[in-house]
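Molecular record:
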Amino acid sequence: MTLLLKFTVPGCPVSKKRHQTATLKKCTRCQRQTLRRQCICGSYEFQFMTNIESTPRETVLYENLVAMAARDAMQKSSETGSLGGPTRAINAGEGCPNQSLQQPPLSLTLRFYFPIPESRKKKLVEGQPHSQRPDLDNCIKSVLDACNTIVYADDSLVSEITASKMWAVAGRAEIEIYAQTNEPRRI
């Protein structure tokens, strides 16, 4: 495997939260639009208009932070040529500059470090496994979605993920992206 990109995202990792949906309705009596169960005119009779979906702010902010760290790492690696990594998105489809037909499958190594709380400093040591919320799979999703169209065109290119959660003095996420070789692997 060839290392394409390596970067660190500062701060406590944030897991991908579920999107929220609200139903926008129109009151049949006064024709006002509302998200509430009861209209301000007192009516409970509504006509459905549409569903409004939103991603929680915390998730959006963290994904933007990961994207910013990825862009910065790509720019630094292209300037220095240190990793031999991509200067543009890997397998960039529409909207992405690099358009090559055949792309290597990618492998990701993700390490999430959560800060040790003051109340548990005596019991926990840096490097111990973190076995509580947030779930590891949701942390992975937030990084994969943040890197979409920035590091790679689509997260379907990722065929292997190695991930871990640990305690640390300072929270951070360490991300390494590798291009897989065509050698057969033993399972």
In short: The chain has two helices and seven strands. The helical segments are 57-80, 136-147. The two ends are 16 Å apart (CA to CA). The first helix runs from residue 57 to 80.
